[in-house]
């Protein structure tokens, strides 16, 4: 700490003599337009907000490390997994889906679990949730689904009717709806929940063999949950309970950890499983594809500036590195487009040059100008600004090519619901809940259905009955008891 504070300047670097008083004609004013320091200050304030994320607007994040504990090099050549003991820096941003930037933290909602690994061969992002599945399996449904989660255009309120109308007309949502309404739908802090890559991704190894893979981040803090009533009390006390808990525990040196595990499926198995392994509404049962330990993720450093490092963080499923690839999952392909598109809109053309998004390895590309082109992209030869060139500019490296993937099938808008079993996996989940968990599930659903027209409720009960007779009967009983009536609004009111 120096005794003299640094000298305050304009953004142009000129020293400022007075930051307390505007430049005026006489002590009573008016202000002179030549007070460019005042103009600059007001103009900057007007530009302090950027568009919030269209979904997952409310979030909490921190930096940390992945430490590899087990050798999985037989599945992937990704350098991040190159050796046991290897450490890689990472950033995690947790979020809720539906709430706006100022939403209360303790609301029932799916939680985002987005991880950026700064690997030596580029940034690898796993942009997942705290659930292993999702509400829909065809990306054409995503904007409609999100519209039902956000505000009604006329009332400007969240609409339980829209939510249950959509869900009851989309039985592929049953699995995720069951998780959302279970205890796991309302953790007291991100520390007490799992993360899942959810989609099927791919690994490929040095021999060019491909494997399908799912990523799991298992909390080492244990699972905890809030009931709706407990959450209402938390929100009454603080709308920022997640930020307080995550930031506070890291400041106190109590670093949260997750065990990184993978499920691995040989490429040829994809034709044999009784379910489509690329269907985002399905898990791979552990008995078929057991969890394999990979490493430990630890969060140990809070950001210094929330806006610069968390709000401006840009995660995208398109960020993969050699040894890790995508899969035929339709939802994943849409996301590969959607996120970078959102970042260009939300943050600007060169968002990947912002310090939090910048890879921690050399970056050499031929993209040129655009707003905020402030970074150098030098390769030692300013004449090599096109490709191919004979001037020694950056060149492709065929050694990192992904092995070819054979695809077949007729082009068409194939019915994504045809022949799909939307009930067995929700049944497996319902069956593993104890009676207390089931009762809370029934009560949470009944609370979320308050005010929904009976025809929609009946349609949804029909789906619950196809999962398990006890499921439908339990919700019907909770509805008759008026469970949840008069409860405060939540993300899913
Ligand atoms: P297992 O008994 O091997 O695994 C059950 C899984 O369910 C565990 O991963 C457990 O997570 C998780 N779980 C427990 N309670 C809940 C809940 N309320 N909400 C969400 N997950 C919960 O069985 P299977 O692999 O055969 O799967 C059976 C069902 O378990 C599936 O249909 C799916 O609904 C659910 N599930 C399965 C996962 C998978 O990848 N196979 C992953 C997560 C859920 P934990 O170990 O962290 O306590
Ligand atoms: C955020 C689109 C499905 C997890 C976003 C954003 C968009 C988007 C545009 C905002 C990005 C930004 O501004 O930075 C979509 C589309 C989907 C889809 C089009 C389906 C077709 C999913 C699924 C998951 C998921 C299935 C999880 C498995 C997330 C997370 C964030 C996010 C965690 C926040 C990332 C962060 O913390 O910055 N999504 N999404 N999304 N989405 Fe999705």
TrEMBL record:
Catalytic residues of the enzyme: 56, 129
GO cellular component: cytoplasm
Catalytic reaction list: 2 H2O2 = O2 + 2 H2O
Entry GO MF terms: catalase activity; heme binding; metal ion binding
Cited SMART domains: Catalase
Keywords: Heme, Hydrogen peroxide, Iron, Metal-binding, Oxidoreductase, Peroxidase
Keyword Metal-binding found: yes
EC number: 1.11.1.6
Binding site for heme: 339
UniProt region (Disordered), positions on chain: 1-29, 383-423
InterPro entries listed in its UniProt record: Catalase, Catalase_3, Catalase_clade1/3, Catalase_core, Catalase_haem_BS, Catalase_immune_responsive, Catalase_sf
Signal peptide (from-to): none
Matches recorded under Pfam families: Catalase, Catalase-rel
Compositional bias per record (Polar residues), positions renumbered to this chain: 1-24
Keyword Glycoprotein annotated: no
Cofactor(s), by name: heme
Catalase core domain location: 9-395
Basic and acidic residues bias: start-end ranges: 411-420
Root EC class: oxidoreductase
GO BP: hydrogen peroxide catabolic process; response to hydrogen peroxide
Role this protein plays: Decomposes hydrogen peroxide into water and oxygen; serves to protect cells from the toxic effects of hydrogen peroxide.
The family this protein is said to belong to: Belongs to the catalase family.
Listed name of the protein: catalase
Organism: Nitrospirillum viridazoti CBAmc
Source organism phylogeny: Bacteria, Pseudomonadati, Pseudomonadota, Alphaproteobacteria, Rhodospirillales
């Amino acid at each position: 700490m120096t005794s003299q504070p640094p000298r305050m300047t304009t953004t142009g670097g000129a020293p400022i003599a007075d930051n307390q008083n505007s430049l005026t004609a006489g002590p009573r004013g008016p202000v002179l337009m030549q007070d460019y320091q005042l103009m600059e200050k007001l103009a900057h304030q007007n530009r302090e907000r950027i568009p919030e994320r269209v979904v997952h607007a409310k979030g909490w994040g921190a930096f940390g490390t992945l430490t590899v504990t087990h050798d999985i090099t037989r599945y992937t050549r990704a350098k991040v997994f190159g050796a046991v003991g290897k450490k890689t820096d990472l950033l995690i941003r947790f979020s809720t889906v539906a709430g706006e930037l100022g939403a209360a933290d303790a609301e029932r909602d799916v939680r985002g679990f987005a991880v950026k690994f700064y690997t030596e061969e580029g940034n690898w992002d796993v942009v997942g949730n705290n659930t292993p599945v999702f509400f829909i399996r065809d990306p054409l449904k995503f904007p409609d689904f999100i519209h039902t989660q956000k505000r009604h255009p006329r009332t400007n309120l969240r609409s339980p009717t829209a939510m249950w109308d959509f869900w009851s007309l989309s039985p592929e949502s049953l699995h995720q709806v069951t998780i959302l309404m279970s205890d796991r739908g309302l953790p007291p802090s991100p520390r007490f929940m799992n993360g899942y890559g959810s989609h099927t991704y791919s690994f490929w190894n040095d021999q060019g063999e491909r494997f399908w893979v799912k990523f799991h981040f298992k909390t080492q803090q244990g699972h905890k949950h809030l009931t709706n009533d407990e959450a209402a009390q938390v929100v009454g006390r603080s709308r920022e309970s997640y930020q307080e808990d995550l930031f506070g525990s890291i400041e106190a040196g109590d670093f949260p950890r997750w065990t990184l595990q993978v499920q691995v499926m040989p490429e040829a198995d994809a034709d044999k499983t009784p379910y489509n392994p690329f269907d985002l509404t399905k898990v791979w049962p552990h008995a078929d594809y057991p969890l394999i330990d990979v490493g430990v993720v630890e969060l140990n450093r809070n950001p210094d500036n929330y806006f610069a490092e968390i709000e401006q963080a840009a995660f995208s499923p398109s960020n993969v590195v050699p040894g890790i690839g995508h899969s035929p999952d339709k939802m994943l392909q849409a996301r590969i487009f959607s996120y970078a598109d959102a970042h260009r809109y939300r943050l600007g053309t060169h968002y990947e040059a912002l310090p939090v998004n910048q890879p921690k390895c050399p970056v050499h590309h031929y993209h040129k100008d655009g707003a905020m082109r402030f970074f150098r992209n030098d390769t030692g030869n300013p004449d090599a600004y096109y490709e191919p060139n004979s001037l020694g500019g950056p060149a492709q490296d065929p050694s990192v090519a992904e092995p070819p993937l054979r695809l077949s099938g007729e082009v068409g808008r194939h019915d994504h619901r045809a022949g799909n079993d939307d009930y067995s996996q929700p049944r497996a989940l319902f069956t593993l809940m104890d009676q207390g968990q089931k009762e809370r599930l029934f009560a949470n659903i009944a609370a979320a259905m308050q005010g929904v027209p009976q025809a929609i409720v009946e349609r949804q009960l029909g789906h619950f009955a196809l999962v398990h007779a006890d499921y439908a009967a339990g919700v019907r009983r909770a509805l008759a008891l008026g469970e949840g009536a008069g409860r405060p609004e939540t993300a899913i009111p």
